[in-house]
């Protein structure tokens, strides 16, 4: 029997699976005054969402054999330390990809139809609000997708099949794009040509602030930026400037840098911004899938198997 530490709340499907396999499941929040480092000291496995697991924290986890990420982003895990220490790291590929892609599309549609400001205007001035603004049609627009992994591919299928959108995509790791997607090696071109730019890249030193002041200035007047990946992909100060100047039509952000966004953040006051609290993956279906996959990854590693989602 192994001791599995779960750092944050998740769907009970995963913990139930672990218990059914005879493992002891411990939730960090139930350990009273213990620090995360103390809780890790006698753990054989850890199932983590967004808690930071750096080498300095992991060095005393002498029994730790596997870190299982609830999701796919591993920027909160010290991969180099894990490689050196022989700790396996796994992700839950495709567990929440569909939910995130739907969230990105929902933000695009809501912003193009101005749903939030028109609702607020209706409440404030009544039916005459219908004469205060106009939405735009999404059908046939150009959607730029940066990062054609599972989420980006889901989104590309949605917008091409349902809305006849032209999709131009940038992904330096691909040489061939799905049908209906134009792959370009010029990142700037995506920002220049797209009516909607949707970010689905991992956060690395190379991608940090890829949506910077220079590239935001390239975007078409009225274009919309969507970020359901990592907050660090966007230079938020530059984004606020572009929105305040009226150069962009809006922004849909499920992530910020840092998280959570402070309550007085200027983005909260902008009528053409939708800001959600890293909520894109949080659907009932995705919660079950990811929790189960993350738990199964632990079971596989402890049982001597290499799961599909193992990256270290």
UniProtKB/TrEMBL annotation:
Q: Name one Pfam family in it.
A: 2-Hacid_dh_C
Gene3D superfamilies on file: NAD(P)-binding Rossmann-like Domain (3.40.50.720)
Q: Which InterPro entries match?
A: D-2-hydroxyacid_DH, D-isomer_2_OHA_DH_cat_dom, D-isomer_DH_CS, D-isomer_DH_CS1, D-isomer_DH_NAD-bd, NAD(P)-bd_dom_sf
Query: Where in this chain does the record put each D-isomer specific 2-hydroxyacid dehydrogenase catalytic domain?
Result: 4-310
Q: Which SUPFAM superfamilies match?
A: Formate/glycerate dehydrogenase catalytic domain-like, NAD(P)-binding Rossmann-fold domains
Q: Does the keyword Amino-acid biosynthesis apply?
A: yes
Annotated signal sequence is none
Q: Does the keyword GTP-binding apply?
A: no
Question: What UniProt keywords are attached to this protein's entry?
Answer: Amino-acid biosynthesis, NAD, Oxidoreductase
Ranges of residues in domain D-isomer specific 2-hydroxyacid dehydrogenase NAD-binding:
105-280
**PANTHER family, A to Z:** D-ISOMER SPECIFIC 2-HYDROXYACID DEHYDROGENASE FAMILY PROTEIN (AFU_ORTHOLOGUE AFUA_6G10090) (PTHR42789:SF1)
- Which family is this sequence assigned to? Belongs to the D-isomer specific 2-hydroxyacid dehydrogenase family.
Q: What is this protein called?
A: Hydroxyacid dehydrogenase
Organism, per UniProt? Answer: Yanshouia hominis
């Amino acid at each position: 029997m192994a001791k599995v530490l779960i750092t944050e709340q998740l769907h009970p499907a995963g913990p139930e699976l672990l218990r059914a396999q005879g493992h002891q499941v411990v939730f960090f929040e139930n350990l009273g005054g213990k620090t995360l480092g103390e809780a890790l000291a006698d753990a054989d496995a850890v199932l983590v969402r967004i808690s930071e697991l750096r080498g300095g924290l992991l060095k005393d986890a002498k029994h730790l054999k596997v870190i299982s990420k609830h999701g796919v982003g591993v920027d909160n895990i010290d991969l180099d330390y894990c490689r050196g220490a022989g700790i396996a790291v796994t992700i839950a590929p495709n567990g929440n990809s569909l939910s995130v892609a739907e969230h990105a599309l929902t933000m695009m549609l809501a912003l193009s139809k101005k749903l939030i400001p028109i609702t607020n205007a209706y409440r404030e001035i009544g039916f005459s609000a219908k004469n205060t603004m106009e939405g735009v049609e999404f059908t046939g627009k150009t959607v730029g997708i940066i990062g054609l992994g599972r989420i980006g591919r889901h989104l590309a299928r949605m917008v091409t099949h349902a809305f006849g959108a032209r999709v131009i995509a940038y992904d330096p790791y691909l040489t061939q794009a799905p049908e209906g997607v134009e792959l370009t090696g010029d990142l700037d071109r995506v920002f220049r040509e797209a009516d909607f730019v949707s970010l689905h890249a991992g956060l690395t030193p190379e991608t940090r602030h890829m949506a910077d002041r220079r590239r935001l200035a390239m975007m078409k007047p009225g274009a919309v930026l969507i970020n359901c990946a990592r907050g660090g992909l966007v230079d938020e100060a530059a984004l606020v400037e572009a929105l305040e100047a009226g150069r962009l039509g809006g922004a849909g952000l499920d992530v910020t840098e840092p998280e959570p966004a402070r309550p007085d953040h200027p983005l909260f006051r902008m009528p053409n911004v939708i800001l959600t609290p890293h909520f894109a993956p949080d659907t009932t279906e995705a919660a079950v899938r990811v929790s189960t996959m993350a738990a199964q990854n632990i079971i596989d590693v402890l049982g001597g198997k290499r799961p599909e989602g193992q990256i270290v």
